[in-house]
Structure formats: C-alpha cells, structure tokens
Amino acid sequence: MTAPEVGPIGLGCASIGNLYREMSEADAAGTLQAAWDGGSRYFDTAPHYGLGLSERRLGRFLADRPRDGFLVSTKVGRLLVENPDYSDGDTDDEGFAVPATLKRQWDPSEAGIRRSLEESLTRLGLERADIVYLHDPDAYDLAAGIEQGLPVLEKLRAEGTADAVGVGANSAETLLACVEAAELDYIMLSGCYTLLDQPAAHELLPACLAKGVQVINVGVYATGILAQPQVPAQAHYKYAPASADIQAKAARIAGICERFGTDLPTAALHFSLRHPAVAAVVAGASSAAQAAQNAARIQAPVPEELWAALAAEELIPHGS
So which residues are the catalytic ones? Predict the structure, then answer.
C-alpha cells in the first residue's frame, strides 16, 4: 500500500494522557478509533503527555494495524526519571491527572535523546518513529537544544532510527532559530498561525518554504476561543482568559462565518491549512465525539468568498 501522508488532519494525543482530567481506557480507545474512522492516520504523542500514558495507550491501539498504514510522531528532550519525592497519592504538577511517580528531566545530549526515544518506542511498541521532534527547547535551554540536540536528531535520521526530524514549540522565534540552524523535515507550530493571530507568517513560514520544511500546525483553536460556533463569555485564548478585544474580534469572525454558511471552528481548521508551508493540522480530542467532529469539520466545504470577506474587514491578512 501507499504510505499515508500526515495531512490534512492528525490526532494530538495529549488528552489520552489524561490532560486536565482522567480518561478511562475505553474512552481513550474510543477517541483513537473515532479519529481513525474519520480518516486520521497521523498520531502525535510525547513522553510528557501523562508521563508516558499517552504513548502506552496509542501503542495498544496501533498494535494490530499494519505498520505502513499510519504515522507516529513523538518527542525527545524531556527524559522520564524516577521521582524521589513521590508520596502515595501525589499527582503530576504539569496538567496531567496521573500519579507523579516519575518526573521530567531536560536532557538534550545524545545519550539523553537516544534513551528518551528508545523508551518511547518501547511504550509505543514500535521499532521506529516516523517523526521525532525536539520538544519545547526554549522552555529549558534553547542554545543547548540547538547545539546539542539538533545534531543528534540529524544523526538519528541518517541512521534510519527516525524517518524524519523536527522541533515543536510555542514560539515562532524559537522555531525560526531551529530552522536556520539545522536541516529539519518538519516543525510543529503551536498557536502561532490561527484564524485570530498569525505571527509565524512574517518570517518563519517563508523560511520553511525556502528550506522545504513542512509545518504541522497545532493549537489552531487558540486554546478554546475558536472551538465553538459562538464565542463563550468566559473564553480562553493562549491558556488565559481572553481580553475583551480578542473576544470581540472572534465574535466578528464568527458572525461572518455564519453569513457564509459555516461556523467558527470549521473556519479555524480550514484557515490553519491555507498557507502553502502547512502540511497538516493536528487537533486534540477529549472524546470520541470531539474526534468525529474534527473529522467532519475538516471535510466540510468552506466557500472561498469567506476569506475575501474576512480580509476586507481586516480580520485576516489579505491573500491569506
């Protein structure tokens, strides 16, 4: 069979690692199945997601599927090590509802990256990863990530241990520095090219086009404010309560979407794919229903006239 492509939509697997709340094994499997049934063949995970829980659950789901029928990306840079301060009942302090028996330890060295990937592949039950990303290096030490970590990723690709390599981050500036410093295949761009805000469009995305780096766009619902047809009164934007100006802008966009027969989250997904550097969007789902809804939205038609109308109102850049 022909190997699957990353796009147009993949499933982000943080939620099946118990992001913010516990998810049962049955619900995790149901979410993965709904994404699969909706056409997703690309699954993104990380050791960070539930201290390995996301990888284990994803591995169980994929175990009986042909290896050439799906793509998996995972991440390195954060080792999982024993937590010497763990007491019975302690839970993770980085947003996942799991016991804090392990903790994360930044390690961009060759030994650290190789160990991290080996442990991830064991949890996933895979012999190789399709894409390996250096995870949030700017949260720790960007210079060390670039100088130590990126050469190791290039070595892993040359060896065939990883088919492709890249960097995932929440900062366009961080990703631009990495694109300029190494020969990457992908970047995972979080929250920097959305229907509300496009800071990556100025330098990063043109640089990716010039170097042939494919962009996986994530966080396209802007952490909540674009996730519903009507903007909620207590909307969140970039992990914080949305300002009045941002809420007003999102509401204006929602109104224009309605005029053109679509809704805000559908437009948000489609907009995030429109830049020629973007190869796929990865969306999370905390239930089977959400995974099915994401699939339906990406398959729904959106009239081209919508983008012209939004640009005319100066709500998105002209030519977007």
Answer: 49
